[in-house]
Structures are given as C-alpha cells and as structure tokens.
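Shall we go through a protein fold together, starting from nothing but its sequence? Please make up or recall a protein chain and show it to me in full. Go ahead whenever you are ready, and we will take it from there.
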Amino acid sequence: MNRNELNPDASPQAAYGARLRRLREARGWTQEHLAERTEYSSVHISAVENGRKPPTLRFSRSLDPVFGLEGTADSFEREYREIKHGSLLEGFPEYVEYEGRAAEIRLYEVGVMPGILQTPEYASALTSRTVERGAITPEQGDERIALVTERQGAFKRTPPPLVFVVLDESCLRRPVGSQAIMRSQLERLVEFAALPNTVLQVAPFDMGDRRPLSLPLYILTLPDRQLMSYAESAQRGHLEREGRSVVPLLTAYHQLQAEAMSQAASVAMIEQLRKGIS
C-alpha cells in the first residue's frame, strides 16, 4: 500500500481522501476490503485517499451505501458536490441538476452569454478574468469551464428539451476575449437559432422601460410539468420550487418574448455584428 500522509486542510480533495481513509480504517478494512464492497479497485481507492486522483460523483455514490451514509448530510456524494461546486452561488448546483432533465428551458440573460451557449474559448476567456481578479482559484475556474460543457450535454438528450433564450443586447455587444473569440461566439448563436428545438430572441436597448425583467432569469418546466425558477444577484442565488411563485415570472417572461425582436430579426442583428468584427 502506497500511503501518503495528507493534510486534510490542504484542499477539499485532500480532506475527502483523509476522511475516506479514516472511515475505512475505523472499520478495520484494508483498501482491498473496501474494493470488494465497491465497484472500484484498491489501486483507485488508494489514489483517491492519497490525493492523486479526484473523487467523482459515481465513486462517491458507490461509497455511501458501504458506509451507511446514503442520503445523509455527511454523505460522500454531498462532499463531492461541495468540492465541485464550491465556487458557485447557492442554489445553482441544484438548478443545474434539474436543468439536465427539464422538458423546457427558458433563459433571460444580461451582459454575458448564458453558459449553455458559450463556446469553450468564450468560457475560458470569461473565467480567466475572474481568476485574475482573485474572485476564484484556478482550480475553481477549471470547474466552472467543465460545468459549461456538462450543461451543454442537455442538448444531446433524446428527446432534446425545448430551449427558449432571450438575450439582452448587452450580451452581444460586450467584448469577451479576442475578436476571433467573439466572432466564433456569435456564430454559435446563429447555429443555436437554427436548431429545431430552440428559439433565440434579442431584447434590444430601445425596449427601454418596456422590458419586464431587469435581472437574469432561468425557468424550467420538468417532464411532469412542474415549474421552477432560478435567479441570482451578485452574491447569492435562489432556486424557487413553488409553482405559484414561478407563474408570475413565467408571465413576465412571455411578456418579454412578445416585446423582444423576432428570431429572424435577432439573427440578422447577430450576423451584422459578427460581420462588423474586423
């Protein structure tokens, strides 16, 4: 056994590995004994305990029933999610889980492209600035970029969700990264609008006070028709699961769509902006 004395305070990943080792040894189990109780090898378990390999959701879920932690506040699954989403606002990780199985997704975004539409280059440029400001660590930046890719996997489901997106004009005009990155990002929007299960609209600046929403808003319709919404400020996020509270937001979203530019006019604006980038 290749034992490495980890400092649990060194990182969340180190704390995870140290805790796994502590619980295993408290039961008198070797890594081989634990391997027999899970679907992972002793080599894999050793790598996680020693911090050489990061834990995964699947690995965490295999540990919880073995240690009797399934569904508890101390579960390895919960610890994994805290590691993965530590830099995200409260409520957003849970929102992402629901988004991954929603039948309909409605987004309104201001100032920045929504994650499900970001190109890898746009996401990287946006995140690198956040890291430079010291708001998040480089590791948390990598996690955010990985989450963008994970969320975009929703489009590959069968059947795919219906996705309605309204972008404030500021999303299109705010430069992120190089001109090449912005050209590619605008091209992504045009490709998105051409999909059979999507609608893309722009809320232009000249809507003025006719715009019923001023902050980003995400509304989901689940397969059982349950409604939920997610909205956030600079410091906190809120996931609303009570349908009666979501209905007024859905009404405001429909009013926003009615006032926004048509998809054809929106795509024409995006194409004009793309061609104007030298």
Observations:
- The CA atoms of residues 109 and 216 lie 5 Å apart.
